[in-house]
Amino acid sequence: MRIRTRPAFTLIELLVVIAIIAILIGLLLPAVQKVREAAARAKCQNNIKQIALANMSYESALGTFVPGVSRTGCCWGTWMVPILPYMEQQAMFSGYTNFGGLDNTGLRYAAGANLTNVSSKQLATFTCPSDQPQVIGTITLHNYVLNAGNTNFYQVAQPTGCTGGTTTATSGCVSFGGAPFGWYEDPATLAAGADSSPVDYAGGNAASGKSGRPRRITDISDGTSNTLCVSEVIQGQGGGDYRGFSWWGGGAGFTTFQTPNHRSAPDVMTGAGCTNLTTGNPPMPCTTTSTGDLSRMQLARGRHTGGVNAAMCDGSVRFVRESVDLAAWRSAGTSQGGESIALN
Amino acid sequence: MPRLFIALASALFVVGCSGDGREAVSGSIKLKGQPLPEGGVVKFEPLEKQGTEGLSVVSAGKYSIPRENGLKPGRYVVRVSAGDGKTAVNPVNPDQPPGPGGGANIVSKNLVPAEWGRNSKQEVTVTPGGRNEFNFEIP
């Protein structure tokens, strides 16, 4: 009797085919991931452009750039609120009350209707698709921050009170060179021992609300194309990490005191909290202690390989490498520094 | 011929690895015998126009500046600062609104003496290819 042999693959042949397919997948998957990240980066750049343009529309309509924070500082709204109508979010804007409120009892950024209508919403245009969106409680975190200058959120020289420095000094005193957005800049408030809010806010003294002074385009004497406007941060990934908590003043800005994606220089998140991540990709060092020698600030950080997206005040968007020269980065952070160093 | 090839290859390797001449710097800092308070900061400022400035947060008394943000060789002055997060430079209005975490919005007093801070004359020299580990004991 003859054994009939059916034409078929041998086991070896099958294994070889499977191995080849596995190698092909191995080659292809990283490429797919890279394309995905490139797409996310492009979307992120687009978001930044939208914010920069919305700021320009605001300027056309009202004559000034948006205020970085409300006049009462930390807790009665940041630039994220007044820019809403210029990003087609009129309805959400209408749901926010007491922006820059000068009272002890009125609604803050994350209370009552403000929480329900605004600060619990995740806005896609304010979120970088390369990052993982987070909430603290029900308050949403976002990725984009405005330029508060080349030193710190108090918009004074670093260390506080030093004199005789330059805006790009790497030794000794770094002087403040102006910023396109006002932050916690009231010297009287700072001298009185703290930070953001009016000294006399309990008394309802309108004169003491001096934070976030809006700038005119003519205040930017370095030129709008030489001055940074918007950049990005990475949202704190849980554990009470308030980076990117941009409904609140201390999480809504960045400074150019150190280069983007810095691996050892900390974000200074006083009055909130953060997790000091010195390893990981990317590392996100931070401290919760602000001193006169290193005061409150967030640095630009992004999840894109090699740098961060940023928009200049003329609306142009660029990718700034993390190896950027510190002096160039600081001079791009100033609006009135008078430096002749170009950001490339 | 093979020897030439090896020499060329190792030269390329060295060039490829040298980056832009920056060196990683690390070490530990003690204040009055104890590790520097959590969240303190150490700063290296160039004295020879090297163009690189080092800044690192100090955690558990240790700091580390990786090569990407490292220092070009030469002399640097070291400045250390740290606060406790509770003691303000000036008294704070008790009515001040706290931040979102309920913490105080304060600028802390610097616990490090001025000879190690603003008036520091503490110098270190970063060497090319060296270990560049600098440990400081602040009295």
Describe this structure in words.
The complex is a heterodimer of chains A (344) and B (139). Chain A contains five helices and eleven strands; from the N terminus they run αββααβββαββββββα. With 344 residues, chain A is α+β, with helices and mostly antiparallel strands. Chain A has one domain (32-333). In chain A, the strands form four sheets. Chain A has a five-stranded mixed sheet with strand order 7-5-6-10-11, with helices on one face. In chain A, β3 (135-136) and β4 (139-140) form a beta hairpin. In chain A, 54% of the residues are buried. With 139 residues, chain B is α+β, with helices and mostly antiparallel strands. Chain B has one domain: Immunoglobulin-like, CATH 2.60.40.1120. Chain B contains one helix and eight strands. In chain B, strands 1, 2, 5 and 8 form a four-stranded mixed sheet that branches. Chain B is elongated and about 45 Å long. The relative contact order of chain B is 0.23. At the A-B interface, β9 of A face β3, β4, β5 and β6 of B.
As for the number of domains of chain A, it is 1
Oligomer: heterodimer
Strand content of chain B: 25-35%
CATH class categorisation of chain B: Mainly Beta
How large, in whole angstroms, is the Cα Rg of chain A?
A: 24 Å
Largest sheet of chain A: 5 strands, mixed
Write down how many β-strands of chain B occur, each being a DSSP E stretch of 2 or more residues. 8
What would you report as the Rg of chain B, rounded to the nearest angstrom?
20 Å
Order of secondary-structure elements of chain B = HEEEEEEEE
Largest sheet of chain B: 4 strands, mixed
Helix tally of chain B?
1
Query: Spans of chain B with pLDDT under 50 lasting ≥5 residues?
Result: 11-18
Mean pLDDT of chain B: 82
- Class per helix and strand makeup of chain A: alpha+beta
Most extensive chain-chain interface: A-B, 60 and 54 residues
Order of helices and strands of chain A: HEEHHEEEHEEEEEEH
